[in-house]
Write a structure and sequence with these properties.
The chain is α+β, with helices and mostly antiparallel strands. It has helices at 2-5, 13-34, 43-61, 65-86, 93-122, 128-133, 135-172, 182-199, 213-220, 222-239, 263-279, 308-311, 315-331; strands at 203-210, 245-250, 253-259, 282-288, 291-297, 301-307, 337-339, 342-343. The protein has 2 domains: 2-171, no CATH class; 182-343, Alpha-Beta Plaits (2-Layer Sandwich).
């Protein structure tokens, strides 16, 4: 009896099932790689081996096409449900929309395969031939092929959109500090200018410059200087409110755009940033001759603040006024916040040194 099982025509299904399993494993890996997650390279082999072994056992034990179709359709539907879950609610913009479409298509495919599995499960053995001859099977197979085609096209579109998004990010984000670069700042400033002017709400701009940053580079080296810039950028970013924008304007200078903010509110925020940076101890590792040591650096920052109520909404005028205020803060002793009308910092302590 066992020998006769090896002569069953159901064995013809086995290679195709294994290849489909490997393909679905690659499909899951592709989604993981596209999402920037860890890729499990053995997954396609494991899925293919699992389907091959279980189908062989079904043929040897039952030799029923109904059970084979029911089992395989169920496993395939689970994998498509996983694909729908992995692409559900990812990102915003064009890439996010493509993710939503992909998730919907995967979900439709999963439901289609689950329906096929349930139909095979509830069909009586002696009527299974009628199930195979059922016209709906042709339509479901055609629909599955159409969905697969659209999924393939969608992956190409997703890849293209992701590449464009990455290129856009490279063009507008500073690679060291991970905040906006000068071009990104200009784009954000123009958008903010248009929105604030249209809604007739104030906007403000801060220009912050690290004090004696050259001394950091000369004392500890440029690698440590880069670490300091990264920490300062992160500190400023974490201090800002939702909707505020920070970018690296050049060297050790940062520009902060503040929508719906008056000049007095901008000064208060600048004071908070100045105090947080002044109190922050930045741990660094540096090499002196042949030995490596760990130190703490304390930095200070000078900030120029200006609001649209004093100079208008024009971005260039805001920048020029903030630059003048920053020059005043530097000229009066550093570690200060200044506006066009004078020094705003009330503290009596102003540190000029990097310790």
């Amino acid at each position: 009896i066992l020998f006769s099982k090896f002569e069953s025509t159901q064995w013809n299904i086995l290679p195709g099932v294994v290849l489909i399993g490997v393909g679905l494993g690659l499909f899951v890996n592709g989604i993981q790689a596209f999402s920037g997650k860890r890729v499990r390279y053995l997954l396609p082999i494991l899925i293919g081996a699992f389907l091959g072994i279980t189908n062989a056992m079904i043929i040897l034990m039952m030799d029923e096409l109904r059970v084979i179709i029911m089992f395989n359709a169920f496993v395939f539907s689970i994998i498509y449900f996983l694909g729908a879950r992995l692409t559900f609610g990812k990102d915003d913009g064009l890439v996010g929309n493509l993710y939503w479409i992909a998730s919907s298509l995967f979900f439709m495919m999963a439901l289609l395969l689950m329906a096929r599995s349930l139909s095979a499960f509830y069909m009586e053995d002696n009527l299974f031939k009628n199930f195979l001859d059922w016209p709906v099977n042709g339509y479901t197979l055609m629909l599955a092929c159409v969905i697969q085609f659209f999924v393939s096209v969608l992956f190409v579109l997703m890849l293209t959109a992701q590449v464009n998004q990455d290129l856009q990010s490279m063009a507008t984000v500073d690679s060291l500090t991970n905040v906006l670069n000068r071009r990104g700042l200009q784009d954000s400033a123009l958008k903010m200018h248009a929105i604030c002017k249209r809604l007739d709400i104030p906007m403000a701009l801060l220009l912050a410059d690290l004090d004696h940053f050259k001394k950091v580079n000369d004392t500890y080296g440029h690698l440590v200087g880069d670490e300091v810039l990264i920490v300062i950028a992160k500190t400023i970013k974490n201090t800002l409110r939702a909707g505020d924008v920070v970018g690296r304007y050049g060297g050790e200078e940062f520009c902060i755009l503040l929508p719906n903010t008056s000049e007095s509110e901008a000064v208060a925020l600048a004071e908070r940033i100045r105090e947080i940076i002044q109190q922050k101890a930045i741990s660094i590792r540096h090499v002196k001759k042949t030995t490596q040591s760990q130190s703490e650096i304390h930095c200070t920052v000078s900030i120029g603040a200006v609001g649209s109520e004093s100079v208008g909404y024009d971005v260039q005028r805001l920048l020029a006024s903030a630059d003048n205020a920053l020059y005043m803060a530097k000229n009066r002793g550093r570690n200060l916040v200044a506006t066009n009308t004078g020094i705003a910092t009330k503290s009596a302590y102003h540190s000029d040194e990097v310790s």
